[in-house]
Amino acid sequence: MNELRNLDSAGVLLPFVQFIIWTLFILFLTWLLQKLISRTITENMIRYRTKKAVRLFSYFLIIILAIVSFTGKLQYLTITIGLITAGIAFALQEIVLSVAGWIAIFSSSIYKPGDRIEINNIKGDVIDIGITKTTLMEIGDWVSSDNYNGRIVQVSNAFVFKSAVRNYSTDFPFVWDEINIPIKYGSDVKLAYQIMNDVAKKSLTEYARFAKVEWQKMISKYLIEAANVEPTIAMTLNDNWIEYNIRYVVDYKRRRLAKHDLFVDLYEAIDQTKGKVTLASATFELTGIPEIDVRLSK
To answer: What is the pTM of this model?
Structure first.
């Protein structure tokens, strides 16, 4: 009791108790606001950002409350913030760099929740951006193509300054992809080309139409030349077969599905040619067997 009286007489106990009470009150109001936001806002992106802003504002209020409670004067606010910032910057350099990365992410729109990015050799969809870490739903690794593998990965925001950030969806939400079709020598080359061209136009016209609009936005924003977003076909002759390369633009989230549709349509169209166009494969045909002398002993 004597120690408590000494603390109270020194003016420490009362400000501390007041700080705890006000902090709990701010956290309670934040919790109520987040519950209200969850019930009233139906749009996922707006709800996420609003809740994040409320939480960050509550942290800011608690910091201001701590400074005012323990310094006693608001005029010392600037000096106190400067001293605290300098100490934190020296002791927690990595965390400060992560916070600076968080500021850079939101101020320059490097990426946002919902984007598909690759950072620090980790590829995935952004599901949350915290003050120090970005959370990704990882894709790839042991899973082929652009499929989720089930792992949730947290990457430090400091990597936006340390490594390249590859964004699949910002500004231009399309990627270029290609497939190679081997055709056997002796096939009707003109018919094969016509089949490739017809199938590509049938399956990829919508992607090309939307990509043209998005690319015009890119031209108006960046110093970049006009690109051909229409499907293109190139033929190559090699030692084994005639190879057709189909290059096209596709939605970054539908790359695997578009490739599947192309292969199915091409196979059906080639099969209907009744042998005029034949798919090639790396198989070997024995045209003659040498004479073999076999001797059996008891």
So the answer is: 0.60
